[in-house]
């Protein structure tokens, strides 16, 4: 797993945990929500990395 993926995974886990704490996400729908959160975070991390490389 590359650095960006690891970073995105960690952030997605923390965000999802916060969503569970605030009852926005339940353990029952975790499997549905987590992949979507990960995709958004991963794409954002990749875009930011690409911008930094271009600068």
Number of domains: 1
- Please mark out the parts with pLDDT under 50 across 5 or more consecutive residues, or reply none: none
Q: End-to-end span in angstroms? A: 25 Å
Which structural class do you get from the secondary structure elements? mainly alpha
Please count the helical segments. 2
Helix content: over 70%
Please report which band the strand proportion falls in: under 5%, 5-15%, 15-25%, 25-35%, 35-45% or over 45%. Answer: under 5%
The total of beta strands comes to 0
Q: What is the radius of gyration? A: 13 Å
Instruction: Sketch the major β-sheet.
Output: none
Characterize the overall form. Answer: elongated
């Amino acid at each position: 797993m590359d650095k960006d993926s690891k970073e995105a995974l960690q952030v997605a886990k923390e965000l999802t945990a916060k969503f569970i704490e605030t009852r926005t996400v339940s353990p029952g729908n975790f499997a549905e929500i987590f992949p979507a959160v990960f995709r958004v975070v991963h794409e954002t991390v990749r875009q930011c990395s690409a911008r930094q490389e271009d600068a």
